[in-house]
Specification:
The complex is a heterodimer.
Chain A (H helix, E strand, L loop, with lengths): L5 H29 L3 H4 L8 H7 L8 H9 L2 H32 L5 H10 L5 H14 L7 H4 L7 H12 L3 H9 L4 H12 L1 H17 L2 H6 L8 H11 L4 H21 L1 H14 L1
Helix pairs in contact in A: 1-15, 4-15, 5-9, 5-12, 12-16, 14-15
Chain B lengths: L1 H33 L2 E2 L7 E2 L3 H9 L1 H31 L7 H13 L2 H11 L6 H8 L14 H11 L2 H12 L3 H9 L4 H29 L3 H6 L11 H11 L3 H29 L5
Antiparallel strand pairs in B: 1-2
Helix pairs in contact in B: 3-7, 3-8, 3-10, 3-12, 4-8, 8-10, 10-13, 12-13
Classes of the chains: A mainly alpha, B mainly alpha.
Chain lengths: 285, 290
């Protein structure tokens, strides 16, 4: 686009700054609350002046103990370990299986390829509620209720969105490259494992990141399948904390902050992967 | 040779084939069967014919309530998401200093985990000491009780949804970046105003992205669940009892799994119908190709 005039630029800055206020305030308020004392959170009189309101943003005194206490209500180390364990399995499973399947769709010739691919894409619009009950009954019958298996096993069977994304990526790699390797006597597995996977690293990273987020944030899986407190994940543990101590706002905000910060750090570390991943979702679809 | 190739292909695709059979195909058909049964998970299902559907349509007022609630949410949240997302993306496409800082600011809320967002907004919307009503009080407005008021509970959730618009904003932004500069240059040569450029170049060129977000937004909106489950549990006065929430309670609280399966199939038919209608309109407003 052409360069904007000085006044246009000024106007854009003004609009963006005004809009940025409601987008940033909640997160700052979350951190501010997480450091306040009960007395400051529940004042005897509500704030009615601007100066009083501005003073509200600064916790005084700063109460770091909220973090220690909040994380005791949510047994943080235990739930973190559970969550990370699930993340590790799901990321490995989803990325590997989806890459394998995507390679079959992009580079192998086999009867039924088109049909299976259309079915995989069609499942993306299938509401989870439709399969939820028989799937639950199936897991119960298998004796998997109350274990992590219902949340891990499906990850190893490919993710429709990742398959789509990786297939797009594999299709940009010239067929000649695979053919040359085949002539050199390389097996399909060899081509996939030694050539395709290393080439697809950026796309694999995108999938790994999304799967990590998906598992970290997942609420419905633990809600339906876990019944033992010691197995809870952070997301589910936080909701349980809310359920039992709904007015301990400082402690709740401390726990919420600790639960959210890793995701925000991850965003800053992997900004490019994040943005490109989300961007390709829409423009290639 | 061809047989070998076939075998290799199916082998590589086997994870998804197994997944489709065991975790999609089988449950899909099984839930259709269960929708004609009484089933409490502990005892084998017993066939009751169309009974579940009959109760659903004639004797369960909450079915209609939950359907109305989800339609209300969809009708407001989806268009608002698209409008704000596109407008914000256009602003953030500007070539000005510090634009990447702005982009980060608008994007961050969308990656906050849904459970965290829900807990946080429950606090922000606290009627007496929440941030929102404190701000309103400064301007002399007595804010409503938000999630405690049947008239404001759904709008509260819609506002919260707009806060997470950053995810789709990034998709629109990518769409804007794909528009060839030559199109704008041509429009400039023809003497088009800023508004005309937006109306006749920018918007038509990103209609495929809008279409994608519309379809995904509609499908997601009909399944709206987690935020309501965490924040309101369906209240007050069932004003946030969304369809998926009603279904979940029937299945896992009352163990009416057959009834919930019937609800799931009604949802499936609605989602397919809505998607089909949206796809039908595609030719009229979505511009593909260069």
């Amino acid at each position: 686009m052409q360069k904007h005039s000085f006044y246009t630029r000024l106007a854009i800055h003004a609009v963006l700054i005004i809009l940025a206020v409601p987008f940033t305030m909640p997160l700052i308020w979350m951190i501010s609350t997480s450091l306040k004392t009960k007395e400051q959170i529940f004042p005897n009189e509500v704030v009615t002046s601007i100066s009083g309101f501005l003073a509200e943003w600064r916790p005084s005194p700063v109460r770091w103990a909220n973090y220690a206490e909040g994380l005791r209500y949510v047994p943080f180390p235990l739930y973190l370990r559970n969550t990370l364990m699930l993340c590790a399995f799901n990321v490995t499973g989803a990325v590997l299986s989806s890459a394998l399947v995507a390679y079959a769709f992009a580079k192998l010739q086999w009867r039924g390829r088109k049909l299976i691919f259309s079915i995989v894409i069609a499942t993306m619009i299938l509401p989870g509620q439709v399969t939820m009950i028989p799937t639950f009954a199936l897991y119960r019958w298998l004796g998997w209720y109350g274990t992590y298996l219902p949340m891990i096993v499906p990850a190893f069977l490919g993710n429709a969105f990742f398959i789509f994304l990786l297939r797009q990526f594999f299709m940009t790699i010239p067929d000649d490259l695979c053919d040359a390797a085949r002539i050199d006597g390389c097996s399909e597995w060899g081509i996939f494992w030694r050539m395709m996977l290393p080439l697809a690293k950026p796309a694999l990273a995108t999938c790994a990141l999304f799967q990590f987020l998906g598992t970290w944030n997942d609420f419905n899986g633990p809600l339906i399948y876990l019944n033992d407190q010691n197995k809870y994940t952070l997301a589910y543990g936080l909701q349980q904390f809310l359920g039992s101590y709904g007015s301990e706002w400082a402690l709740l905000m401390a726990a919420t902050t600790v639960f959210t910060i890793p995701i925000i750090i991850l965003f800053f570390l992997a900004q490019r992967t994040f943005i490109q991943g989300i961007a390709t979702t829409g423009s290639k679809g | 040779m061809a047989r070998r190739q076939n075998l290799t292909g199916w082998l590589f695709a086997s994870p998804v084939v197994i997944g489709l059979l065991v975790f999609t195909g089988y449950p899909f058909l099984a839930s259709l069967y269960l929708s004609f049964c009484e089933y409490d998970i502990f005892n084998p299902p017993t066939w009751v014919g169309l009974n579940n559907y009959r109760i659903l349509f004639t004797r369960d007022p909450l079915f209609w309530t939950s359907l109305k609630n989800v339609l209300y949410y969809t009708v407001f949240a989806v268009p608002m998401g698209i409008t704000f997302g596109v407008a914000l993306a256009m602003l953030l496409d500007a070539k000005i200093k510090g634009i990447s800082v702005y982009r980060t600011i608008f994007f961050l809320p969308s990656i906050v985990p849904v459970v965290a967002t829900s807990v946080l907004w429950l606090w922000l919307l606290n009627p007496r000491i929440g941030l929102v009503n404190t701000l309103l009080r400064l301007t002399g407005v007595a804010g409503p009780t938000w999630l405690g008021d049947p008239a404001w509970s759904k709008p509260s959730l819609i506002f919260m949804g707009v806060w997470g618009v950053g995810g789709s904003m990034i998709i629109y932004l990518a769409g804007l970046k794909d528009i060839p500069v030559t199109l704008y240059e041509a429009a400039l040569v023809d003497g088009a105003s800023t508004w005309q450029r937006i109306r006749h170049v920018t918007l038509p060129m990103i209609t495929p992205v809008i279409f994608f977000n519309l379809v995904m937004g509609l499908i997601g909106s009909f399944q709206y669940f987690t935020q309501a489950f965490i924040m309101t549990g369906g209240g007050p006065l069932d004003s946030t009892l969304f369809y998926a929430l009603h279904l979940f309670y029937q299945a896992f609280m009352y163990l009416k799994m057959g009834y919930a399966s019937a609800m799931a199939w009604v949802l499936f038919v609605i989602v397919v119908a809505v998607t089909a209608v949206v796809f039908k309109t595609q030719g009229r407003w979505v511009h593909y190709g260069r």
